[in-house]
Amino acid sequence: MTGGMPRTPPSARTKSFPVASPHTSRGEHRGAPGEDDGVVPDGVTVFDDSIPAVANLDPGLLKALRRAATVAADDGVEFSVNSGRRSPEHQNQLLRKAVAQYGSEDEAARWVATAATSPHVSGDAVDIGRSPATAWLSRRGAAYGLCPIYKNEPWHYELRPEATDRRCPRMYADPTQDPRTQQ
Description:
Layout: H1 52-55, H2 59-74, E1 81-83, H3 88-102, H4 105-108, E2 125-128, H5 132-140, E3 146-150, E4 153-159
């Protein structure tokens, strides 16, 4: 998430997100999210099976990422992972932070989906570090079925196997335009 977005006054809010209460109930995670929730330490690559955010990605997505990363390595490019599979609790925490940062649920929705709609929670999305890797993927990712989904998030990739024969589908401006994130 980046800053500097215009703030919308609370009276202009039109969406209501099912964000977890600050009070935890039985069976719910207590404390700050950790690696088991999908927090990714610095320096993690798509080959780090000991990191749950990587190891718990959809197997097809992970296989495509590793194939692409192996070829990219020949070009001197490493795929670092900023985010992968996340727990619902971690996703809800990110959404709460985005609401606080952007000043409204509507603005936050441009950057963070709910736990119920985020492809990160299902393990179907990965955020690749801002680096030569995102540039490499923007040029060559479709050959592996790896497609950018949102124009405002060039680091966010999902598996689209049909892209290997065609092109990646047209990107949405941001998650608010993605029918999958609508409730």
